[in-house]
Amino acid sequence: MSPNPCTFFREAFCEGNRVYLREIKTSDVPRLVKWKSDRLVQRMALGPDACITAASQRSDIKQAIKSDAELYFIICLEQSDRPLGYIRINWMDTSHRFAWLRFAMGEERGKGYCKDALQAFIARLLSQGVHRIEAEAYEFNRVSIGLMESLGFKREGLKRQAHYDGERYADVAVLGLLAQDFLSHA
């Protein structure tokens, strides 16, 4: 059997139509600090108390690389290999059938790159036996919720006033994706 061209040339986890995912490296620390320090990413994904330093990101990357329960990838543009954002599984059960998803984009938001990356990533996870993927988004983050719903995620609940942004409380939407949900959207 010949090697998968996706992993042979780039050591990519998977490829979309315009992007590919590669494993995170400690050399990605400066770009992660930049992305996660962005006001929009802080507001939409992290919260006001997130500790975004080079040391904290380096430690987080090292922990993720060593963990059997985490996956952490950089989304790269196919044409130029330029990093655009990240996708990660922050937790996966020991059977690797249930996963908790997180993602964020850098400066290239709104161009479809994240959807392309998530479609490829989810397809790869499901092909490896993952049955269910969970995610959460602040209720005011309509873009992320809409993106996940476009991939087949279903709203499963609402954590009322579960996020405090320093000024007010916000609800947190809970979304879930089963393998059959994704396949019916493909």
What is the fold's blueprint, element by element?
Blueprint: H1 5-10, E1 12-15, E2 19-23, H2 29-37, H3 39-46, H4 54-66, E3 71-77, E4 83-92, E5 98-105, H5 113-127, E6 132-138, H6 142-150, E7 154-164, E8 169-178, H7 179-185
Helix pairs in contact: 2-4
Helix tally? 7
Secondary-structure element string: HEEHHHEEEHEHEEH
- CATH class annotation: Alpha Beta
Q: What gross morphology would you assign?
A: globular
Overall pLDDT level: 90
CATH topology: Aminopeptidase
CATH superfamily: Gcn5-related N-acetyltransferase (GNAT)
- Major pleated sheet: 8 strands, mixed
**Uncertain regions: pLDDT < 50 for 5+ in a row?**
1-10
The first-to-last residue Cα distance is: 27 Å
Tell me what the CATH architecture is.
3-Layer(aba) Sandwich
Number of domains: 1
Strand content: 25-35%
Rg result: 16 Å
The count of strands amounts to 8
Strand order of the largest sheet: 1-2-3-4-5-6-8-7
Tell me the structural class: alpha+beta
The quaternary structure here is single chain
